[in-house]
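SEQUENCE, STRUCTURE TOKENS:
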Amino acid sequence: MDTSTLFSLKGRTALVTGGSRGIGKMIAAGFIAQGAKVYISSRKADVCDATAAELGPNCFSLPHDVSTVAGCQMLADEYFKHEKSLDILVNNAGAAWGEAFETFPESGWDKVMDLNVKSLFFLTQALHGPLKSAASKSQPGKVINIASIDGIRINAWETYSYQASKAAVIQLTRRMATRLIKDHINVTAIAPGAFASEMNKAARDFEDEVGHGVPSGRIGHDEDMAAVAIYLAARSGDYVVGETIAVDGGVVYGAAGASMDA
């Protein structure tokens, strides 16, 4: 058994949405370190360009707003101008909204559900051709959806559309997996816990306090996120289909629930 190339991404091409910062940037950096050619996309062109320059010559900026179906198609068309095939798609772009039940607005529902669920599906659909053309039984294509532990358990905040959207991502991952495996494309998901990002300002700004509430005793580091994404994207993950991996230091599966006797 030769394990020397299990985690290599040499010769592979990836597209990471929301790749200019936070979890998307962590994943993009990890892929590049393993030899992949990585395209990153985000809504803000200047930020996307700056991150691509920071991550080096194997990172390329494709700024697009994928919050609409038209935007998803535009990104797919732009990608196809540069590459004829795609090995790895990471659907990471996302949004959150928190507001009291009594005043939670339709706009907060639609914005989150459209970007976190609808766009994920339609971008994958738009890139199905390039993914399929690169995939084979011996080297399947990879679609990695970024869910959240908030799609598995209930958090303490009134983020109704966000929690619903991330639960939907987990179920959609399973449904897409059953179809795309026929084209030798493996669909999986990652459910992050506390990682420092613009979306998780608490973990970013209060690392010690948030980490104290995690069974592992800390928030996630860049390498923690990169490692699981590399595992799923590389040969190491070729036999993993439809699974969602919680990367959260034990918040979901390593913490005991409240007891009636407590």
